[in-house]
Input
Amino acid sequence: MLREVNCGELHAKDSGKVFTLAGWIRKIRDHGEIIFIDLWDRYGITQVVFSPDSPALRERAKQLGLEWVIRVKGEVKKRPKDMVNPELSTGEIELVASEFDILNASKVPPFVVKEDLTAEKELRLKYRYLELRREKALKGFILRHKLMQKAREYLNSKAFLEVETPILAKSTPEGARDFLVPSRMHPGSFYSLAQSPQLYKQILMVAGFDRYYQFARCFRDEDMRGDRQIEHTQIDIEMAYPECEDIYKLGEGLLSYMVEGTLGERPSTPFPRMTYKEAMEKYGTDKPDLRNPLVIEDKTKIAKKGKFGIFNQCEVTRGIKIKRLFTRKEIDELEEVVKKAGTKGLLYLMSDGGKLRAPFAKYFKELDGFGVKNGETLFLVSGGDKEVLTSLGVLRCELGKRYNLIEKGWRFLWVTDFPLFEWNEEENRWAPVHHIFTQTIGDIKELENDAGSVLAKLYDLVLNGVELGSGSIRNHDPEVQRRLFRIIGMTDEEVEDRFGFLLRALSYGAPPHGGIALGFDRICMLLGGLDSIPEVMTFPKTLTGVGLMENSPSTVPDKDLKELKLELKKDE
Ligand code: ASP
Output
């Protein structure tokens, strides 16, 4: 028998009995007469003793090294009181070895495997299995597993069907670049790796599936930032006949079931809601962190009452009030933050000991109208509306972080009524804010007159300042969908070529439908209290898209390219 019990299973009640254990050697303490070994596996650590009573066995144990895999048999003994380790589930006992086998030796590991790793990131990724072979790393994956089971339980209970859709899909860009896969059977043609199952799930509604979900792997050939990877997992959901309200209720039910089922606390529902406009005006972002109590106030009117040039020349002046006084140095540092976010400078008004101080004080008869009370500071930014809001949004986060204003808890939020389109300067055309399959609020006619002003049945779910996911009510009328394609400058031929299959499906009795996709990796990261998404991915890529462990992407033999009828151009 290789193993009877695991390394986290033996307790004081087992003392006197003999068991066989297997695991990795995590620590060796060789005191000459006596050797202690920490034997590790996913379930815990058991202390194994090679005692003076079996000198031959102890001598043989001297060859053992870190991360070797051994099987050991021995008697469970209670540890003396002063040797009990309350940090370990097995801390009251030790296993006194009577025999052992080496199941597999290990080369000397490139870094010492321990809970607090200090090794460089690249080295850890190259030896990812060693990095993962730790309680701290495994914890995130155990949570991920539980969250997945909870999501399934909830969605199953609401009659959703778990369905798979193709990963080798048709290239239908959704904002990001596609990964292309050359077809051997159809040389010159390419599949694309699905950016999301968006069109498949919509067509499943046409097919009468009524309620669909999938843990969908999505592939986007984007430059990676800290919290993004080129492949990720979504809980992808679609339903027939929904109003926005139905999706909000479903999202709230699902998330609170997942949080309660794993962390034991139930977030309060319904989640608060805010339109996109309100979010931008109060928080300077479409994903506000509601744990931060600071809000942006519009001070344009009062600012224009004085004779201060900057206030009078700029479109708007907005500010953030905070109960605190600041030194010159602090203000300079904060000014750097807003400058980086795109504005020219930061002004302030401070009420210190009943006296109002501001660099623009002399241009005003009185400053009371700004509404700053004793001990408070009002930071002000002037300029164009968009840049002012964005930079104050950044300042708000900075102040929250620097001065520990972030409250505890899970603050969910729906952000609703996004505009359908935004102007893309680079491409000189309207581009969808989310995706083009979204229904407008109100009449589509207005859209053809002024695409930027029209709002959509488009919502985001935000948790603690992080966007968990987006969704929308879709266009089930193929004519409306066709008109939207025209607005983003697609010709009817292009539409037919790329999206003809969708329009055809919509013209065979498509029910009204809508849905949402939630970033599953992100949910795991947040609920696990982790800093980055790769921590809950088994084998993440580096920021330049490299799999360091397996060395991907890699070149392929010429004969493979030939089969695909592909030829590589030599670098010029
Ligand atoms: N497919 C969309 C996305 O990946 C989500 C949705 O609209 O349901 O963002």
In short: The radius of gyration is 30 Å. The pocket of aspartic acid is lined by residues 196, 198, 470-472, 515-517 (CB under 6 Å). DSSP finds 16 helices and 23 strands in the chain. The chain has a mean pLDDT of 95.
